[in-house]
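The instructor's notes for this session suggest beginning with a concrete chain rather than abstract definitions. Hand out the sequence below and ask the class to guess, before any prediction is shown, which regions might be ordered.
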Amino acid sequence: QVQFVESGGGLVQSGGSLTLSCRTSGFTFTNYVMKWYRQTPGAEREFVASIEPYTTATNYGASVKGRFTISRRNAENTVYLHMNSLKVDDTAMYYCNAQNRYTRREHWGQGTQVTVSS
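After discussion, reveal the predicted structure:
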């Protein structure tokens, strides 16, 4: 049974920092590229960041590059999103995503809310 436990969201002032974590179980973590997406009401889900399982190569959305850092601990089946210099526009529900490198099958977390106040 695939499970995601997302945590770390909350309310923070503009310019502040937060770290999201996503602890997973029920699948072979190292077969999956781990990603973060975000979504605001009425908008499309937006890609935030991704990280490969072994090379740990990363990729970022243009709006967060240079401010956010994605990392993973394979031994703990956990992925993180370190968010710095937060802006009001970063306010969204943040979702953890796992995509199988071979089958492209995806699993999604339940989301954690990040709210940045001005």
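Then share the key points. The mean pLDDT is 97. The CA atoms of residues 49 and 60 lie 4 Å apart.
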